[in-house]
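User: Show me a protein chain along with its predicted structure.
Assistant: Here is one chain, sequence first, then structure tokens.
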Amino acid sequence: MKNTQPLEGLLVLDFTTLLPGPLAALMLAEAGAEVIKIERPGGEDMARFPPLVGGQSAVYAMLNRGKQVLTLDLKSEADRAKLKPLIARADIVIEQFRPGVMARLGLGYDDMRAINRKIIYCAISGYGQSGPRAHEAGHDINYIGATGLLDLQPGPASQPVLPPALIADIAGGSFPAVINILLALRARDRSGEGAFIDIAMTDAMFTFGWYALALGLAGGRFPKSGELQLVGSSPRYRLYPAKDGKLVACGALEQKFWEGFCAAIGLAPEFIDDRRDPNATAEAVAQIVASRSSGEWAPIFAKADCCTTIVAPLEEALRDPHFVERGLFVQRLTLGDGRDIPALPVPVDPQFRAKP
């Protein structure tokens, strides 16, 4: 029996570049949609990001696996005319220009809806299609900075720390785009009408501030930098360097896990009640963890089962038997020099993806 994917038969026109839109379109492609990526002559900026393998950007290849590319100059009336047949049969459009750009080109939602009333048009931008900041330039660091999220734990002023993930791009752009496109498809099944979706990458950053919002709005005092339990104020949820320099990630929040952790490392009884002096407890834990290597600690924490792990470098995580057995890397991507590497893992259940 043929494995029919849930989005098979749907056509997506992808006008996006860099990360948020291309990743959203990739997830739709992985679930069976036909994705045509519209690129300007010369290609998009991501196509020149290193590493270049066989003349092709590996990053670009990862984000655009399974898509077709159509090169058009959107400022050319003749090239825009070539889009009309595609718009007429498209189900979904994703664009990532600043607000108003596509409308000025005659490719806004109203223009496309006049051709195809069933079209679902998703516009991804930093601050949304309306509001005082709608036309403001920005990147991920600006979006998490403008919404209070980065202030919750930027690290010391002398050495501020950036998160290791592009939170606004992916969790504020790509994921909400896919979620709302799927909701719009469901709504279209009932009404027969398409929709305009306004995705502002900044909006979902307030979602990530859920705990700080509850404390501030309901409790009357917003937390200062570093005060939240999950950003470093608690010795139960912290990174501790081991003797060999590797980090131990302690997440022993619940009392049973904390007691198991304390027993595993042999923490002195006077420090176990961390409410009395959290800093003293953290310092005592740090000294003990620093006395042994990560290799010595790993079996101890595994036996204790106390929400504590050794921070793994990415190359080690790729070899972890758990992730390998889960099939995260079975899909393959062919690079420009002919080599096969694992395709980018995406949060699409294997049953909805094509066979590897």
